[in-house]
Amino acid sequence: MFFHTTVAYLSASVLYLGSGAVARSTLDGFISSETPIALQGVLANIGADGARAAGVESGIVVASPSKVNPDYWYTWTRDSALTFKFLVEEVAAGNFSLHSLVQEYISAQAVLQGVSNPSGDLSTGAGLGEPKFNVNETAFTGPWGRPQRDGPALRATALIAYANWLVDHGDTDVAVTHVWPVIHNDLSYVAQYWNRTGYDLWEEVDGSSFFTVAVSHRALVEGAALATQLNRTCDDCGSVATAILCFQQSFWTGEFIDSNINLQTSINRTGKDANSLLAAIHVFDPDVSGCDDSLFQPCSARALANHKEVVDSFRGVYALNEGIANTSAVAVGRYAEDVYYDGNPWYLCTLAAAEQLYDALYQWDKLGSLNVTDVSLGFFQVFDPSVKTGTYTSSSTTYTSLAAAIRDYADGFVSIVEKYTPSNGALSEQFSKNNGTQTSAVHLTWSYVSFLTATRRRSGDVPPSWGASQSKDVPTSCAATTVNGTYVSATVTSWPAINNSTSTTNETSTGTGTSGSATSSSTKSNTGSVINIIT
Ligand SMILES: *[C@@H]1O[C@H](CO)[C@@H](O)[C@H](O)[C@H]1NC(C)=O
Ligand SMILES: *[C@@H]1O[C@H](CO)[C@@H](O)[C@H](O)[C@H]1NC(C)=O
Ligand SMILES: *[C@@H]1O[C@H](CO)[C@@H](O)[C@H](O)[C@H]1NC(C)=O
Ligand SMILES: *[C@@H]1O[C@H](CO)[C@@H](O)[C@H](O)[C@H]1NC(C)=O
Ligand SMILES: *[C@@H]1O[C@H](CO)[C@@H](O)[C@H](O)[C@H]1NC(C)=O
Ligand SMILES: *[C@@H]1O[C@H](CO)[C@@H](O)[C@H](O)[C@H]1NC(C)=O
Ligand SMILES: *[C@@H]1O[C@H](CO)[C@@H](O)[C@H](O)[C@H]1NC(C)=O
Ligand SMILES: *[C@@H]1O[C@H](CO)[C@@H](O)[C@H](O)[C@H]1NC(C)=O
Ligand SMILES: *[C@@H]1O[C@H](CO)[C@@H](O)[C@H](O)[C@H]1NC(C)=O
Ligand SMILES: *[C@@H]1O[C@H](CO)[C@@H](O)[C@H](O)[C@H]1NC(C)=O
Ligand SMILES: *[C@@H]1O[C@H](CO)[C@@H](O)[C@H](O)[C@H]1NC(C)=O
Ligand SMILES: *[C@@H]1O[C@H](CO)[C@@H](O)[C@H](O)[C@H]1NC(C)=O
């Protein structure tokens, strides 16, 4: 197993054998039994060899094997990227058998980038915003909520993680020839189109989505850093990233994140939406210099206040949550007003609520303190009604008791998932708000991935930094800076053997993650087989 356990969390559980301790030992058992099921659940949904992916092209991820009610037998750019963002972490943690799957994914994305579709084609970049394709790598031409602009950003993030790993392992040339051309198209898309409306991650609302904007900023920041590493250009990535971060601030209402603004679709919602919890975990940087509000990091006052607002918005709407104290975790869905499949809790939303808090605990532990501010006071008062604003260092009793209580609270969300997971471990998209039985798509890839990422963070196992601390400054006035990008068809075939040994000459990555340590003693060299990339 490649899961690391931090000393800090071990000591916390030893010191605080409160009411959470018994629940936690049960939860540990669930996590160990569910982990291999979830990983196999992910792999089963990926072609060409996945057990539930018969007929799916190599490297293509199906959202779910469900073909009717609902029909999810498609490949979404978003779901696929989030899946491979996780699988690249597994490679970095030492599971080198996943190299081939990651490479098949990259080769398949190079193909999909060139498929003309109802959103457009590659020549203008517009086709990159198409949300989903048929599993045989042809365009889906039916009506849909399109474009969805988070896809290119998330795909860039997944590929940048792999490219950074290659650089760290002596394979910079492979990152340049095989991965960068695909990344570059996606970065060009983000830099050109971020300031236009598009559909949100739930595919319902045309406007500006917090999730999309947050992951767009991240992609350009880490894309600019990678370009420097690879001696390639990412024209104006930095200045556009700053413009996006500036715009991102406008989603903050003062009390919570309004997930959908600039609405082109009429909706009647509060704006409290798991969109913002997912944004927090997907821009999580383990190496922040502080819990800055501008970045909406998991430990920031804004993201914590928002966490409480979003979670509380589900307390009154599901029968399943009735009778649960306001200080305990509840089942979480997309947004309280949801009516899709009757509007139920989702596994991936409930797990995102847990993951944000595990991320925050990691950040506080690393920073050695936590701040209670006017903005986050309400969040912290759930765990200690008498807590006051101020800075609490990790040696203080206030810090240790808050951290222990927040960890128990986070575990509570995973325990809800445990409670509503059948004994075979299968995870669908939703579970009934009335009685917890599973509903909507079976074996949802994203549900499995969300279980795996949340529980890895719980173990203190985190991805590398993406450079958040260097990109947190917000200009005094916002510019709508965009850059018309260049788009070049990438053909990525025939991958060379990858040098799995850690570079001893230099650590070139911006990463500081714990993954990958002491996992490989391989010193085999790159055999240098044919690299064939045509641009
Ligand atoms: C790296 O690991 C993968 C998976 O184990 C293996 O296929 C590949 O040959 C390794 N690379 C080298 C150069 O040994
Ligand atoms: C490593 O990846 C393979 C798929 O390539 C998977 O079957 C296996 O369970 C993974 N190993 C661990 C320890 O997660
Ligand atoms: C690809 O899949 C779509 C949807 O199932 C189908 O309509 C189309 O005929 C397939 N195309 C090819 C070339 O197999
Ligand atoms: C474009 O950026 C400007 C400046 O931040 C902002 O006012 C506007 O709402 C943005 N529009 C969209 C659709 O992103
Ligand atoms: C960087 O790229 C430029 C243009 O492709 C090239 O002239 C230069 O030699 C490269 N520098 C290094 C250090 O590889
Ligand atoms: C909006 O939702 C609120 C709360 O559900 C409801 O009271 C109100 O009538 C709705 N307004 C419209 C225009 O649908
Ligand atoms: C707490 O606030 C201080 C002052 O604003 C800041 O320097 C520090 O980085 C913050 N610490 C955390 C953990 O956010
Ligand atoms: C619990 O939370 C709900 C929803 O936010 C709120 O309506 C209710 O007043 C709270 N109850 C207590 C006892 O604080
Ligand atoms: C659970 O509730 C759903 C509606 O949310 C209903 O369709 C189903 O029949 C119920 N199942 C049981 C076992 O009560
Ligand atoms: C970008 O391209 C559009 C047409 O696609 C053109 O109208 C616009 O002037 C270009 N902007 C820049 C900065 O080149
Ligand atoms: C593989 O990585 C090791 C350690 O950085 C390095 O010494 C070796 O030259 C690399 N091999 C190749 C073929 O790049
Ligand atoms: C390692 O990288 C740093 C920063 O890029 C550089 O200053 C240093 O010279 C490098 N060391 C070696 C041995 O290449």
Order of helices and strands: HHEHHEHHEEHHEHHHEHEHEEHEE
What structural class is derived from the secondary structure elements? mainly alpha
Total of helices:
14
Q: Main β-sheet, in a few words?
A: 3 strands, antiparallel
What is the percent of helical residues? 40-55%
The best one-word shape is globular
End-to-end separation in angstroms reads 39 Å
Q: What's the mean pLDDT score? A: 91
What bound compounds does this protein have?
2-acetamido-2-deoxy-beta-D-glucopyranose
**Sheet with most strands: strand arrangement:** 3-4-5
Organism: Penicilliopsis zonata CBS 506.65
Keywords: Carbohydrate metabolism, Glycoprotein, Glycosidase, Hydrolase, Polysaccharide degradation, Signal
GO molecular function, one term: glucan 1,4-alpha-glucosidase activity
Pfam family, one: Glyco_hydro_15
How do you describe this structure in short?
The protein is mainly alpha-helical.
Q: In words, what does this structure look like?
A:
This protein has helices spanning 7-15, 20-44, 77-92, 99-113, 150-168, 172-193, 210-230, 237-248, 274-282, 301-312, 347-367, 377-381, 397-419, 445-458, and strands spanning 75-76, 132-133, 198-199, 206-209, 260-261, 369-372, 390-393, 430-431, 438-439, 491-492, 533-534. It contains 14 helices and 11 strands. The protein has 2 domains: 46-254 and 264-283 and 484-502, Glycosyltransferase, CATH 1.50.10; 285-465, Glycosyltransferase (Alpha/alpha barrel). The protein starts with 6 loop residues before the first helix and ends with a strand. 42% of the residues lie in helices and 5% in strands. The chain is globular. It is mostly helical and 535 residues long. Bound molecules: 2-acetamido-2-deoxy-beta-D-glucopyranose (12 copies). The site of one 2-acetamido-2-deoxy-beta-D-glucopyranose has 3 residues, from loops. One 2-acetamido-2-deoxy-beta-D-glucopyranose is lined by residues 312, 315-316, 326.
